Structures are given as structure tokens and as C-alpha cells.
Amino acid sequence: MAVNGVNRILIAVHDMVRAKEKYHDLLGATFLDAHWTGEPFGIAVSIAWDAGIELCAPLPGREADSAVSAYLAAHGEGVMNIFFNVSDGEAAMERAVGQGYESVHSLDYTQTEIDQHLGGLFRRYQEFTLNTRERCGFTVSLARIEAKENA
Q: pLDDT > 90: what percent of the chain?
């Protein structure tokens, strides 16, 4: 299993529209809304694959109880999660378990889900989010993300 660097960082923000404008102006980042991934957790999600940034904010009306609300209340806006790109998700997860970490959330998108929700950019998309906050100071996700050849 190889670690191929950082895929993206997740930044918790209060205002999605303002944050997208800020990072677009600063970096030229182009965001793809992926709210469907966060709606069950009360969060809006937008990803700029070109800049390696994912933004998450409470959905309107969910500012008090979204999955990101407690983080924002305790820490303010900032880096909440780092996604490391790995060549083999299962092997990376085995290594993490061997070090005493557990997966708190995982997903493995089908090609149909990738095409429908992620702009068809990838041929494989798998993530394991680990319980690393106490030991690392932020959350770590192991992400096997393979781009399509001509995407």
C-alpha cells in the first residue's frame, strides 16, 4: 500500500457561499457542490478537486445540530479533516487498525454514483474516515481515488 500524498483538505466554514467565493478569488478554485453527501448529517458540501479543498457548512436551519456545528463552536472555521490518497484502501485500513484506529465512516461509490454526483471524474472512489482527532488533532481519511484517464 502506497500513500500518494494529500488528496484534499476539508475546511469547516460558517457560510458556504462566502467561503466558495473566498477560495475561488484566492486560488481560482472551481467548486462542485456535493450536498447530497452531507444532507443526512445537516451539512452542505462543496469540493474543488483542482485546488484540493472540500468545504462543509451547516445547512440553513441546521446551524445548531449539524455534524459540523460542534466543531465550528469549539474551533471556529478551519481544517477539520485531511484526506490522504492511498493505492489500496483495504490495506491502508488494515494498517490503521493495527495502530489502534477505527473507521467511523466509510464509503465506496459505484461508477453510477461517481458519474451522477462527482462529475464522472473518477473510475474508483473509496474512503475510510478514522477516529484520529484525539491523537492527531484532526480527522484523517484514507481515500483511494483513481482518476479516469481522459477526465
A: 82
